[in-house]
Structures are given as C-alpha cells and as structure tokens.
Design a protein that fits this description.
The protein is α+β, with helices and mostly antiparallel strands. The chain is 54% helix and 14% strand. The chain contains 16 helices and 15 strands. The chain has helices spanning 2-76, 108-121, 130-144, 148-164, 169-183, 191-195, 214-220, 227-244, 249-255, 295-308, 339-415, 425-450, 463-467, 470-477, 497-513, 573-583; strands spanning 85-89, 92-95, 273-275, 279-284, 287-292, 317-320, 326-328, 334-337, 459-462, 482-487, 492-495, 520-529, 533-540, 587-594, 597-604. It has a six-stranded antiparallel β-sheet, covered by helices on one side. Helix 1 (2-76) packs antiparallel against helix 11 (339-415), helix 2 runs parallel beside helix 5 (169-183) and helix 3 (130-144) runs antiparallel to helix 4 (148-164). It is rod-shaped and about 185 Å long.
Length: 609
Amino acid sequence: MLRRLLPTLVALGFGLLALGWGLVSLQRIFAREREDAHAQVRSRRDALGHAASETLRQVLARQLKEQIPAIHAAMDNPLAPGERFYLQFRGKPFLPRHTLSMAGEDMPARALYETLSDHLRVGPPPPHWESRVTRLRAAEAALVADNLPRATALVEELLRHHSKHPLPPDQELPFLLLSVEHLQRGPSTMPLVRALLREGLPEEFGGISRGAGLQRDLLRERGSFTQADFDFLHARILRLSRLLGEPTRDFVERARETGEGRLLMPDELTEPTLVGEQWYVEPRGEGIYGISVDSAALLAPITQDMIARGLFGANGHMRLVGGRAVIPVRELKVHVDLPEWARAEADIEARYGLKTLLVAACGGLAAAIFALAVVAQQRKYRFLELKSDFVATVSHELRTPLASIRLMGETLERKLAHAPEVRDYPTRIVQAADGLHFLVENILSFNRIDKGRWTLRASHVRLEELVNPLRDDLASATFAPVELVTDMDDAELEADPSLLRLLFSNLGRNACAYNTRSPVRISVQARMIAGHGCTVLFRDNGVGIPEHEWENVFLDFYRLSPQGQDVHGSGLGLALCRKIMKLHHGDIQIASSTSEGTTFALTFHEPRR
C-alpha cells in the first residue's frame, strides 16, 4: 500500500512545503510591518522627548541664572531666604545654612543675661564686666534725665568699647540684647540703639562685621547656642523688634529653617548636574551654585506649551527619566506619554495578532487538508486491499467445503459399502456443508445490516432458549469436545431471536476456532440489573486477544493470526456481533482477555422480564 500512496504523499508534501514557505514569508512581512509601525511611534515619542529635554535644560540654566543675586544675598544676609539655594565656594559650603543648634540643655546665655540684668539694677558689676555695665548705666541714666546729647555720646562710647573688645557670641549677644532693652524708648528710640536690633552698626563702630544686628547675629551664630538659649534669645529679640516696629517676618521664617542641613555633592563636579532629582547645581568659577527644583512643576509649562502648539494631546504628560542619584544635565531625558500612542501600539499588536492568527489558521487548515487527503487515500487503498482479501478469502472458504463435499461424495459412492473406515464421511460432509452455510449466512446478514436493509423482528424471548441450541451448533462445527455452562437467571429480552442466535453462534465458533485446548469450555452468564438492563458475560478458554487489539477485532474484515495457528475465517464475525448489538440499542465489549481465555460483555438496554 505504501508504494501506491508514495506518489500522492510526495505531491502533497511538495504542495505543503510550498504553502508553508509562502505562509512563513507572509508572516515575516507582517512582523516587519509591525516593527515599522512601532518605530514610527517611537520616533515621534523620542522627538518630543528630545525637545522637552532640551527645553528643560534651558529652563534649569535660566532659573539658576535668575537666582544668582538671591543666592549672593542669602550668603551675605542671614535674614534672606536661603533654604532653596546651594552655594559652595572654594570647597566650603555656605548654603543651605547649617541651622542646627549646639547639643545640650544648658542655658549659659540666659544665665548671663539674668545676671547682668540683676547687676544693672543694684550692686557692683560682675568681674570683667565693669567697663561695659558702667557705660550702660551712665547712658541709661542720661536717657532717664532726658539729656539726649549726653546719652548719645555715652552710647557711642559704649559701642566703641564694644568694637575694640569683642566677646564670644554667647556673651556678646545677651549683653547687646540687654543694652537695647534698657536704652530703647519705643518709637522715639535713638537710631544708633535701633540699629543694634536689625540694621547693624555703622562703620565707625566696627560695621556689620562687629554687629550686623541682633536678628542677623543670632541666626548667624545659631550653632554657638543650645536650643534652649536660642529659643530664649529669639523670643526676647522678637518681642523687642515688635515693640520698636522693626520687621520680624523674615526673622521668624529663618528661625524655622531647622533641618535643611548640609547637602552632599559628588566629588569633582565639572558640569551642570541634577542631584537626587531635587537640586540643579552648576560650577561657576571657584564656586558651585545650585537651586532646589521640582521636576514635575518645571515640566508642566513645557507640557502646556506643546499642547498649545498642537504637538501634544490634552491627556498627554511628561516625566523625568530618573533612576540615578546624580544625572549630568547633558544626559537628562524626559519621557513623553500619550494615551493615543498607547492605543496606537495596542492597535498595532491587535492587527499583528489577527494576521498571525489568520496565517496560523491557514497553516492548520493546510495541515488538516493534508492529513485528510492522506487518510482518505489510505482508506481508499485499504478498502481495495480489504475487498481483494475478502474476495480471496470467501473464494477460498467456499472452494474448500465444496471440494470436500464433491470428493467425499464420490468416495462414498465407490467405497461406502465395502470400507468401514469411511463411515464418518457423511458427518464430515455435513460439517463442511454447515460451515459453508454459516459463512454464507454471515455474509448475507452483514451485508443487509450494513446497508440498513434488515428489519428487526423483535419478540419476547428467554435467553435460556437462545443459548441452549448453541451446544448442538458447536458440536457440529468442530471436532473438539465443547463444554457449555449457562446461568441465565431466567433473563428475558425483547429482541430478534434469529439475530441473537447468529450472535451467540459467532462468539461460540470464534471460541472454538481460536483455541488450542480440549475440551473447549464456554460459559454464558446473564444478570438482570433493575433500571440498567441485562448484562451477558460470554467466557471461553481460548488463546486470548492482545489488549491493543480489543477494539480492532470489531472492525470489518479484521482478522487476528495467532502464532502457530492457521485459522480460517472472513473477519466478519465480531463486526457482525457489534452491528447486531447496536440494532438492539446495546453494546459488546471485551471485558478481559488473557492467555487463559476471553470474556465478552454484552449489554442490553431496556429489558423486559
């Protein structure tokens, strides 16, 4: 059969290969189209991202340039805002300010303030404070006497002494605070005393290097005081400033800058850089200048500008591509997201998936067609072979009995009267004739059932009456002795008696034909199960059927060839049995089979008892 199928298989194979090559080429084209479509979307995204990145670089540089004066002002003036600025000059950081107080809970500045305040009222001055306290008492006395010229002269003398004899901040600030408190006269306070509070000393008294004003000096020297001392001095200076009508808002805000602390910068900073996505720093001469930035706030106007120019959808947004603590500005990248781009990419993938599915469907269809063509051709040639084998088998099976009948008949005619050894010839003639009759009956029944020409003649029958005649039938069909044991349980069925006899006869003759034992033992057992019908178990002691052949033996014209046995037959017996069972809406299966024998299970539905 393979030689007959080979040309068809080769033609189908070449056709399948050509179709496969075409489908693979088509899939490659679809993949290239998908990549090109994605590349177009990426190109537009990258172009907008590049434009946004360049704009962001320019905005950062411009904002820093605009803030340079404010950075210088914050460096020179402790009252100027400095929390959003960074300044490092010759390796020393100036901004953000170091706003942490000295550790500890002691209050030496407050203790000195209270001591000096007590000695100003009564008693001699403390050691080392005689000259300052004496001058302060004299100036206060002149003010009390309403002698303004003398008071002014004494205040100037006090400030010159203060300029020539500097003290540590934790001593100088409490004394100056006490001096302003005793010398102030509300709105009519002399300018020189008022300058001690905020404006700072004139140059002739040491300038701002000796006294930038109590507000500035306290903020600048914050690290020289404990938090308790700072809070005390801050509260006294604040109350005094409000009393004299001096500005206090910036003084209060700068005092709250605690915690801004130091900002760590990478070593050898040589180019504009974004640090932690929060600081933009840029080297300028011997210094490094920087500002605090909010990338989202900076990108918002860029986004709005692109929307106004029609480059961007209303639902689009930008974000800074981070992931690193230190990003040189030249490497700064902005990622642009648009919902329509996501939808476009989803549509690209959907179209590609649909095209791929169609290619796969075409491939699967082609493979199915190939398989069906092969199966069809195989069945065609198999049918032809089976037909040829069937004709040859039937011819042989018909020829052999007929030849036996003729030969034995001729022999009987010549010798029957003179030779006792031929007395069994008539029996053998009958057996051969019965075998021929059974074969013809099988063929005719199979053909009628297969073509749907059999009309079922059902009647009420007892299984015992159908199985018992099997003894005589098998006795005439084989030379080996047959032992038949039945247990029918009085089972009754609504069935065609002639078909059931033919069914049991086929099973019995197979049991005799495929058997090497003597006697041939056959057991037929029936059981009625309420609601489930009747089950008949047909057992023999034959050679058995291999498990992988259990379903094949019920195929048309299928015959087994046991090793060492020459079994004659047409291959229709078990196939006819299954067709008979289906006519009765039942089924026949091999329940078990070993070398000790085979058990067939016959299931009849809707029985009658």
